[in-house]
Amino acid sequence: MKILLTGANGYIGARLIPALLQQGHEIVCQVRDPKLFQKQSPYADQVTLIKGDLLRSRSMEPLPTDVDAAYYLVNALPQTSGFAGLEALSAENFIQAVDQTACKQIISLSEIDDHLGQAGLSRQHVEDILRTSDAAITILKSTMIVGTGSIALELMEGLTKKSPIIIAANWARAQEQPIATDNVIDYLVGSLLNEDTFNSEFHISGPDILTFKDMLLMHGEICRQRKVKIVTVPQVSSALSSYWLNYLTPISYSHAKTLVENLKFDLVSRDDAIKSIIPLRLLTLRDALQTSIQVSS
Questions:
Q1: Of 92, 124, 142, which closes a domain?
Q2: Considering the domain boundaries, does residue 273 fall inside one?
Q3: Terminal CA-to-CA distance of the chain, rounded, Å?
Q4: What CATH number is given to the structural domain containing 220?
Q5: CB burial class (10 A; 0-12, 13-18, 19+) of residue 10?
Q6: Closest Cα to residue 195, out of 144, 244, 137?
Q7: What is the mean pLDDT of each run of 10 residues along the chain (297 residues)?
Q8: Are residues 96 and 169 in the same domain?
Q9: Are residues 126 and 239 both part of a single domain?
């Protein structure tokens, strides 16, 4: 099958490429800068590159008309009202281009977000735009993704560098249901032209429900090989927490701000329908952390 991939330079997109190639699919990557992609991706010579910036429709080269399915994995932008409008524009330009092809399905990855803050409302608007396509839509909503290079793992690595770890009290109590990167890729591949996933939204998550404090303790045990001490402090402002994370970790301020907002709430799956459609061996957080050590070594 011929598969269109947007967000090929992103964390998930870059890991999806080898999985799709292994299945024998022909991949067309729509990228803003083909030369940069060729420098960064070890699979550049195994895919077809189409130049195009989804924020500038005139820059987009025509897509092959025989595309069978498409992945919309465009990274979220910093959440201000202006950037929310740009996210919507990106989705609209994508739909206009894809609807000129024979694409039968669009698969998108989003986040479970019950409180629908500014970021959640922007994602919901993008999903509504994607649903206007002539193709069937499949939306996978994940919890915290943990794997080598993921923002969640960078967060834990940054916080556990020193002891004691100082975190806000509500962070310590927030329940998370982390999912391993490998399982996210499995679900993305398993959904491909799977009619049981057409025009549907699914929650994807791992088997563990843990507080963020428990996650940090486990990371210290497995990745630092020591017991970390955690001190909780009363609620601090989102801005201060975001600057603090940006200082302690490699995470950008915009990503830190989104993480801080998410850590105020439980992120737990309420829907396990995907498990009967795409049965997998779901990795625990311990599995994901141990795998990250093996990859790094």
A1: 142
A2: no
A3: 35
A4: 3.90.25.10
A5: middle
A6: 137
A7: 95 97 97 94 96 90 96 69 74 96 97 69 87 97 92 87 81 91 98 98 96 94 92 72 64 67 81 95 96 80
A8: no
A9: no
